[in-house]
Specification:
About 65% of the residues lie in helices and about 10% in strands. With about 375 residues, it is of the alpha+beta class.
């Protein structure tokens, strides 16, 4: 069933938090105006509270109500997507409109309350200063509303960016799983089939390793929202990698020699799921599969306590690769791991490749602890 989500309607009134700030901003202005209006230059005069409040409501009340219209007005400008120059011109014009409208309202109020002579006297005394004061009030309120909308927009964009980043990382993790599953099935079952006839006990052990590997991959798919957990313990990832290497050893035999250099204190730290095994798989594919000579694969995990970072590297003494060949390669594993690390932890944690023809291949990354 298709659900249609109604478009968001423009807000005619400011949100509660904006309204509170708007009211608070008027309090000191009202106090200063009340005191100035009551003493009228004579600091020895007593202040009549009711008279002061009446003067504030009469003179600033219309401006308070008119300026609330700036909330939908600033929203309209934001939706139109005007450039800075056009927005500035709009504000200048509306500031003049506000100042004149406010003056006309005050003139009409004085006419009704005190008569034409008082209204004319007020107009002659106030017009210039009131126009300037009104424009300054307009700019202050318009700037506040615009700033609040900019903060709202920045927060929404940051949240959307974070969601998009998380979605991209989960999508690439899913793509890596989809690559791994058929790889395990088709490249390992052949070795297991031959081993069943030759050494049933070893075949049984290999099948258990193969089962553990598949279970690990499947377990990473059962996390939040069905996308699988992004993080696992280093111990789990290394156990998964050991099972993978155990199965590859059935096929490669004495050609494959593995050196483990693992800091035991690092095992409890978490790493992204399927972040180390693809690096090992890359070495198996390019350093061991194409040649019959024996080789050494080194997996190094160190905890840098001073920098508070976990250092992981996988290297081999195979034929290596030219940098331009690496850039144009179509392999999924290294690129996916690199992007996932950079998306989650920043560029400083991205995959670092060190290789050249005849000098082996090394892939390394570091994560904050």
């Amino acid at each position: 069933m298709m659900h249609i989500v109604p478009a968001a309607q423009p807000q005619r009134m400011p949100p509660q938090e904006v309204m509170k700030a708007y009211l608070i901003g008027w309090v000191p202005l009202g106090l200063v105006y009340a005191i100035a209006n009551e003493i009228d230059g004579d600091f020895s005069r007593d202040i009549d509270l009711l008279s002061a409040l009446g003067g504030v409501g009469r003179n600033l009340g219309p401006a308070f109500l008119l300026l609330m219209a700036l909330w939908p007005y600033t929203g309209w400008l934001e939706r139109r997507g005007f450039g800075a120059t056009r927005v500035l011109l709009n504000h200048i014009g509306m500031a003049l409109v506000f100042a004149v409208t406010w003056h006309l309202l005050l003139y009409a109020m004085f006419w009704l309350l005190f008569g034409e002579a008082a209204a004319e006297r007020a107009r002659r005394n106030w017009f210039i200063w009131q126009t300037m004061f009104g424009m300054m009030m307009f700019w202050a309120v318009a700037g506040g509303f615009t700033a609040f909308r900019a903060v709202q927009r920045a927060r929404a964009e940051a949240a959307a960016s974070a969601q998009a980043t998380a979605l991209l990382a989960r999508t690439e993790l899913a793509a890596l799983r989809n690559k791994l599953n058929p790889h395990f099935l088709f490249n390992t079952l052949h070795s297991l089939t031959a081993l069943v006839r030759r050494n049933p006990k070893q075949a049984e052990e290999a099948l258990l390793m193969f089962s553990d590997m598949l279970r690990y991959v499947l377990d990473t798919e059962k996390g939040r929202e069905g996308s699988g957990p992004d993080r696992v313990s280093l111990q789990q990832e290394l156990d998964f990698t050991r099972d993978y290497l155990g199965l590859e050893a059935l096929r490669l035999g004495p050609r494959l020699s593995v050196r483990w250099q693992v800091d035991e204190a690092a095992l409890a730290h978490s790493v992204p799921a399927l972040s180390i095994q693809p690096l090992v798989e890359n070495s198996i594919k390019h350093a061991f599969n194409p040649r019959s000579a024996p080789g050494v694969l080194t997996i190094r995990v160190q905890l840098d306590r001073a920098a508070q970072r976990l250092q992981v590297s996988v290297s081999d003494n195979g034929p290596g690769s030219a940098p331009d060949v690496l850039e144009t390669g179509s392999g999924l594993g290294l690129k996916t791991v690199s992007r996932r690390l950079a998306l989650e932890f920043g560029a400083a944690s991205g995959l670092r490749i060190d290789t050249r023809p005849g000098a082996g291949f090394s892939a390394a990354f570091s994560l904050p602890t």
